[in-house]
Design goal:
The complex is a heterodimer.
Chain A (H helix, E strand, L loop, with lengths): L1 H11 L20 H4 L20 H23 L1 H25 L9 H11 L7 H17 L11 H12 L22 H8 L5 H6 L11 H13 L6 H20 L7 H6 L3 H8 L10 H21 L6 H18 L11
Helix pairs in contact in A: 3-4, 3-5, 3-10, 4-5, 4-6, 5-6, 5-7, 6-7, 7-15, 10-13, 11-13, 11-14, 14-15
Chain B lengths: L6 H6 L15 H6 L4 H24 L9 H23 L1 H7 L10 H11 L4 H31 L1 E2 L2 E2 L14 H23 L3
Antiparallel strand pairs in B: 1-2
Classes of the chains: A mainly alpha, B mainly alpha.
């Protein structure tokens, strides 16, 4: 106790501060190089990094949105106003939620970087066209608030926010989210089965060309494989998506699904059907390649894709649900930190473990 | 530490200062598992309060004769005795509730709040304070269970004590009465419990 009392007294004795010595400022000399070089040729002295790219978060995000435009166009073509309403609602809800959370957290507004718009857009593309708009808004709010901002915002989220929102809606409204309507190019039936659901529960097959062009029932953005591939290739060429992830994901689904098909062609669908049905293309090109939630190392990207592919085939063939893209990617998102840790490249000279 | 605390302080601290499970982050398993419906949550809370009150009293009264080395085992035996009483009473008089809570009634034995209060409080304090502590913490826990189960039942099923209270076209989130809904609900409430005092005290 005595010592505790003494300490404040000692602190109160302020040490005498020495007066700052008057420092003579040297006159700024003229740079001798100025005579030899023009200012534009002068060497720049700075520390690394010396190279910079034009890529920024907002540039990447807006490019992804551009790559999604064909898929959006096809969904509008097939599902008409329902698609437009759904997409506009989801994107608007995403932007409003993002702005509100920015305000709440007292940080700079991040609406312009486009990440919220992508989340809304991707979520809209994974919903059935007849889905209730107010429920969709709840899903978007969940995706942005719980999927992204709770973890600290863009770059800190563990799971792909759009998929998390989709999973939330799937758990909340299991009936509404699996009620499909036909695209308007088909007979105007009230509801229909997706190709995957049809195969799983009734052993119906869908023709390959219908799958390729998207003339089937399904979610807004998942029916037409060909435009999604086009958008995905665009992203890969721009190097905004790691090509290893879609290649390994789709390849694994093809091979693993193909093995089952070879074993028993009457019970299991062909690998081509696996590839072009459901949300696999959208998931492989636009969701699994999410920079934040996928591994950063090349080896890790292969592991991620193969793991997601195996999970997908297992869920599709043996699970209770007809489709497993969402859960396969979410599950691999969860192990991404682990993959990153174990695939860290060795630096030169590092001793073997 | 040695400062004498009043009975009212020991009683009321359970309602806000160390409100379980938001402040005293213990007893989360029943919190997550049985709060699907208000009836279950309330029943669980009352059962826990009963066990907590009497185990605190007994442990406090015989604390001087329990050898230090076997104290945890002794506490468990005392707690288990009261849990068996609760279980038999429920089975006799509230059979439907007993069926709904199922395995979570016997699991009150390992509820960390009860063992935690026995170890941290009842074994060091006189009987009247331990009783106040047990009752306060137990009622605080009941309150929390009631609150979280009300949120989950209203959102997840659109009902309150089994009565429909939401408007006709309300589509319940089945999500909220599933297990992940419990985790997210608890997490958001914990965040709010930390946010509100911070805002009030002006920190950050």
């Amino acid at each position: 106790m005595d010592e505790e009392k003494k300490i404040p007294e000692q602190l109160e004795q302020k040490p005498v501060e020495p007066k700052p010595l008057p420092v003579k400022k040297p006159k700024p000399k003229k740079d001798p190089r100025a005579k030899l070089y023009k200012p534009s040729q002068m060497l720049i002295m700075s520390s690394s990094p010396h190279l910079s790219t034009v890529d920024s978060v907002s540039r990447i995000m807006w490019t992804v949105i551009v790559a999604l435009i064909p898929a959006v166009g096809m969904s509008v073509y097939y599902f008409g106003w329902a698609a437009i309403f759904m997409i506009v609602t989801c994107v608007a809800a995403a932007l409003v939620t993002e702005a509100l959370l920015n305000k709440l957290k007292g940080e700079a507004f991040t609406i312009k970087d486009g990440s919220a718009a992508i989340t809304g857009l991707l979520l809209a593309l994974t919903l059935p066209p007849s889905f209730d708009l107010s429920s969709a808004i709840i899903g978007v709010v969940f995706a942005i608030a719980v999927g992204k901002h709770i973890f600290g915002g863009l770059g800190y989220n563990i799971f792909n926010p759009a998929l998390l929102g989709r999973a939330f809606l799937q758990a909340s409204f299991p009936v509404a989210i699996t009620t499909w309507t036909n695209p308007r190019t088909l007979v105007d039936a009230v509801s229909t089965a997706t190709p995957l659901g049809g195969f799983k529960f009734e052993k119906l097959t869908t023709t390959f060309m219908d799958l390729l062009y998207g003339n089937t029932g399904g979610c807004l953005g998942e029916t037409s494989a060909i435009v999604i591939i086009a958008g995905g290739l665009f992203l890969i060429i721009k190097k905004y998506a790691d090509w290893r992830i879609p290649v390994s994901y789709l390849g694994t689904v093809f091979i693993f699904g193909g093995i089952f098909w070879l074993l028993n062609p009457s019970d299991y669908p062909s690998p081509w059907f696996h590839l072009f049905s459901g949300g696999l293309m959208l998931g492989a090109f636009f969701m699994a390649t999410d920079m934040v939630t996928s591994p950063i190392t090349p080896k890790g990207a292969w592991i991620f894709g193969v793991g997601a592919g195996i999970l997908l085939v297992v869920i599709r063939l043996f699970g209770g649900l007809p489709e497993g893209v969402m859960y396969s990617i979410l599950l691999m998102n969860a192990v991404t930190p682990l993959i990153n840790r174990y695939t860290r490249p060795k630096y030169f000279g590092e001793p073997r473990a | 530490m040695a400062k004498a605390k009043s009975i009212s302080y020991e009683f009321f601290k359970g309602f806000w200062e160390i409100l379980p499970p938001f402040r005293l982050v213990l007893g989360l398993c029943p919190m997550l598992a049985v709060t699907k419906y208000v009836e279950n949550g309330l029943g669980m809370g009352i059962a826990t309060t009963f066990v907590l009150l009497f185990s605190n009293i007994i442990i406090s009264s015989i604390k001087s004769v329990i050898p230090k080395k076997v104290r945890i085992a002794s506490y468990i035996v005392i707690i288990a005795t009261f849990v068996v009483i609760v279980e038999l009473v429920m089975q006799a008089f509230f059979y439907s509730l007993f069926e709904k809570l199922g395995i979570f009634i016997p699991l009150i034995v390992v509820n960390c709040i009860i063992l935690g209060r026995a170890e941290a409080f009842a074994s060091k304090n006189p009987i009247h304070l331990s009783a106040a502590d047990g009752l306060g913490i137990g009622l605080g826990y009941t309150m929390s269970l009631f609150f979280i189960s009300a949120i989950r039942e209203i959102l997840g099923a659109g009902t309150f004590f089994g009565m429909h209270i939401m408007w006709g076209s309300y589509e319940p989130f089945a999500f909220m009465i599933e297990a992940p809904g419990a985790f997210i609900c608890l997490g958001l409430l914990l965040a709010m419990m930390n946010l509100i005092p911070n805002k009030l005290s002006g920190a950050n």
